[in-house]
User: Fold these one by one.
Assistant:
Number 1:
Amino acid sequence: MGKQILILGGGFGGLAAAHELRNGLASEHKITLVDRQPLFLMGLTKLWILNGRRSVGENPGNRTTLTKRGIDFLEGEVVSFDFKNRKIRVGKQQLSYDYLVIALGAEYSVAATSGFAKFASNLYTESGCAEIRDLLQAFNSGTLTILVCGLPFKCPPAPYEAAMIIDDVLRKRGVREKVRLQIVTPEPHPLTILGQDAGKRVIKLLEERSIEYHSSHKVKEICQKKILTEDGKEFQSELILAIPVNVVPTVLKEAGLVGQSGWVPVDPTNMTTNIPQVYAIGDCAGTRIPKGVLLPRAGILAEGQGKVVAKNIIQEITGKGRPIEFDGRGVCYMEVGSGKAAPVNADFYAQPSPTWEFTSPSEDGYHQKQRFLTERMEAWFQ
């Protein structure tokens, strides 16, 4: 008898798992992917809105096309879990499963930071980036601040990418010398998990562009043209672009899945939870690396986890091959403006600390990033 495999969330991890499962299992096994909406837009492209390289809603993937690949798609909100009876409620529908892959990601809590909704623009949404794009075209002088409101947050290089892209936009407008550009963050240094040397590489890129970096400051409140921090500092700023606090989806808390870290605890080698046949991958998972801290939230890592989970489910169903483990490796392409990007390869499971390789920014690095996008969109939706 065929198995029912249910995937909650259609981001990097969910899509990678769904396709891997479909390619490795006979058609008698049903694969269903659930997401709130049919359209998929890769998060790494949001910052391209700032400099006009992409428009809002441009070239999305459509999850409804997954049916052509033998993957069922259900649009809806996950409401509740019944692990004892292996059932999930999505909207008013009840779904049964033999295997469950939770890939619901992280949500943004604007309300977690006092004054955010009134005095800051959201750097992590499409609509927010479109608003910022327009603001940049009218911003001729004063202080512009990129503010990180809490840890951890999706895509650790993003605040620094945004700052350098904005620097490039302002230079091309001929107003950069009249704008003070700064980053305020609770991080001790950029790319904290990779260590101080990696952080110094990023800080050097910022210094080359006269971008100020203010680390180890946790925001207390965003006011009109002012940021107050918990250590008593005050940063004046005419324009505040903020990264909201990232939180685990409420439905996972209500299901009792969330651990002390604030995320769903998993075995870092295979992404299993403490519930049989239930896995958690991607941003909602609290994956601890050998150093003891949590694995960064990045699409490439969620993709790798999704593939590992899928292959292990296939192995368990078919009895063929051996279980595999997630290796904690990933690459990101940190943009620096002017159509250049710096590939950063990392092994987060290396002992005793993560290892990394930082390639200098280049046009080829940017083209690699574009290929990264194109290859996945074609593999998942065409």
Number 2:
Amino acid sequence: MDDIISGAPLGPRVSKVKPMDDYKLLLVFNNGESRIFDAKPLFSMHVFEVLKNKVFFDTVKVAHGSVQWPNDIDYCSLSCF
């Protein structure tokens, strides 16, 4: 099974994240590209409701090429960035 995916590129991964005003994230990817991600649409999903607390939202960090908050809350859908 490892032979099937070995060497297959995963695509750009998040290397830096900075919380911004209005629940947006400035993302920098390992290919040098930067994008702004609006996280507000996530609030409609139960698991992400806690992100409405701006103090908690601002604790975001990079983990394994995606973004993560405490309590194992993460978002890694690169197609949305």
